[in-house]
Amino acid sequence: MTQSSSQPNRALLQRLPQVQRERLSHIDFKLFFLGELKRADVADRFGTGPAAATRDIAQYKELAPGNLALDNTDKIYRPTENFLPLFDHAPQRVLTALSRGFGEGIGDELKPMVRCEFPLALSVPKMSVLAPITRAIHRGKAIRMGYTSVESGHNEREIVPTALVNNGMRWHVRAYDRRRKGFRDFVFTRMEDPVLLEGSAIADAEKVDQDAQWNRIIELELVPHPAHPRPEVVMMDYDMPDGVLRVKVRAANAGYMLRRSTIDCSPDHSLSGPEYALWLRDPLALYGANNAQLAPGYKDPNAGPETRPIKAW
């Protein structure tokens, strides 16, 4: 079977010099994950002139003729509906680049390419699912997709993605859910065939600045668990010479963080076991956080006496 003229020519790509492949990979990355490419993106990233950037884009178009089209309204290249990545982008490198801005600055100047939280552990969503979501975040667009939730099973959703989040076990996207008319967390592995909705206008209520849980910052005071046999070791482990570890976290992510770190959030530090090195000194700090119930031992102060604390699994 012969290769279609619109398919990427990866055989020719492998014969190019490494430095040129790096520039072409950057073009491929911008199109695939951010949904746009400007000539200055190549020139600024690699310190080349505009003419050299133009040649790189032309070569990319020769290798993958069906991948990009010039939007004459703003002189920006965008991926076509038939876009096929020219490179096999390693998932962890992609996630690192999107969340840490790898190669987009020096030292403290590094900034994420899209709004993103970056805990230490990484999960690996499918790139074919991740790419439309990150394009939507970058460009301020809505997404239509199939989604399967524990609560309601499989159905079609329209969402407005605003940020990537890693809760330590998996990546998900923070988004406005047009069905429920509020901001929710959507797990990548439960998404099917996300499609970017070019013509769907974003209402003010759907923008990230209206997400109260995302924008509310909670300060948590963590101390060595009163039942820990060696509190001085805990203080060393968490670099807390004064005995208190103060952590600022978004309300939207507080429950995830406390669960991942196995922190006792019961009001009377009643959870036992070697995994509980820290105790949340004031559980009322979580009041109003929608996912507070994920925190080990947390008890809603408004709940009745029959309510049992929820432990993390």
TrEMBL record:
Q: Name all DNA-binding transcriptional repressor CapW winged helix-turn-helix domain ranges.
A: 21-87
Entries under Pfam families matching the protein: BrxR_CTD, WHD_BrxR, WYL
Residue intervals of the DNA-binding transcriptional repressor CapW C-terminal dimerisation domain: 217-283
Transmembrane region(s): none
Q: Which InterPro entries match?
A: CapW-like, CapW_CTD, CBASS_pafABC_assoc_protein, WHD_CapW, WYL_dom
- Annotated ranges, domain WYL: 129-193
Which protein, by its recorded name, is this?
Uncharacterized protein
Q: Which organism is it from?
A: Caballeronia sordidicola (Burkholderia sordidicola)
